[in-house]
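Morning, I've got a small favour to ask if you have a moment. Here's the protein in full, and shout if anything looks odd to you:
***
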Amino acid sequence: MAKVEQFPDQSGKNGITEDVKERGQQENSAPALDQKTKVMPEELRERAETQVPDDGLLMGRDIGKSADHGKTSGVGEAGSERGKDGEKGKKQSRKKAGLFRIGSILPGSEDDKKNLSYEEQIDRHRSRIRAYRLFGVVILVMVLLLAALFFNTRHYSRAEIKKIRDFVAEEGAVCVNFDGYVLQYGPNGAACADTNGRVRWTITYEMDQPIISMSGDVAAIADYGGTTIYVMNTRKQLYTVSTSLPIHKISASESGGVAAILDDRSKTWIRLYSKEGKEIAYFIRSMRENGYPMDVAVSPDGRKVCVSSLLMKDAEVISNLSFYNFGKEGQDYEQHLVGNFEYTNEVFPYVRFLGNKSCAAASDSRLVVFDTSSTEPQNSFNNMLTEDMQGIFESGGRIALLFTDLTRENLYRLDIYGRNGKKAGSIGFTMVYDDIQIKGDRIYINNEQSMQIFTLSGREIFNGGFDRTVKALIPSLRLGGLAAVTENEIDSIKLR
């Protein structure tokens, strides 16, 4: 057996000097500690905290663990306290870093991700997603605003007409816009087709002088002086009414009802029919007492009627605007007459309901609007006219009055009013027109060879000509949905 010699050390403890032992303890516990005080010198502590704060905190926790095993308990307690303080400092710094990066598009560094807990990484990821979404919404809104600005300010100068389908018009027939459909009527019948040329319905009759009234998607056709009324909508024929007296005037309602003024020499009969074609009311007006009826209008719900009459009295011309209510509200009134208004030396050839709560009447010297929301109508707007009116146009709850432009900057001036009687806009134009239509917020003016389109504010959208004869223009709420009836065909119109 080999003999192992032990070399005696200077201290007598198996060859390991106190100096070596002390150096080993110093190497195992960095940074160096003052053995007398068991506390890191102030200069070294400041240097360690400045250069490597995280490692110093971790070392403090390691020293705390060794203290739990009974080794240098004083240093363990001090390290544990520094560990706790360091952990709080790290959490606060992480919170600040997280707040700084909320809404930022750039991700954090790899070292930051390692120091973050799983929940903190999830929060940061969600913050980035919210930032991406917010950024996307902002970009989308900007694009939509720019697109709206472009289309609202764009001006077109050329119209391309493309054939859709053959549509042979009867000789002597008239084609009109019927709530976005094509309505053709003449002495021998009527037909309705969509803008793709598909026929919805046809009817045949014989009339000498057909008259028509349209309201929304309902139309009524009768022969002036005849005894039959045909009522249709854009889908089908609704009913036919036969009268015992000659027809003088008809007025269709959006509900499908119709009112008719019938002549009987010394007096007139006004009959009201429901949407099923049944007579629901009638009243008799004397020529001597009430005058000669000029026009009649029915409210969209089919319950209210306004009649304009002209009477000669004591060498004066007197116009009567009479309102009738055939609903429950008018049952307590004699002959359902709920209101009567007289105007001296004025003629009212035009009355129209602009909704169930509003009715407009125009004379040669004024535009008056009545509030019909209550049982008895009230005069809510009265606009005196100082110029000679050239025409009246109504659509979609708006009414337009046409005048000669006295400034001579244009040939005509069109003033547009809303349901409340307030002026919605005014436009000037130079075209010799065949038709003027209001569709949405746009005004369409056309003749057989050209067209102008304006906004209600007066901005011109289009001014140009056609390469063929246009018999009827069919506007749409979309500017790109414009159609026309030309010679023996239905065409689409694209503005360029």
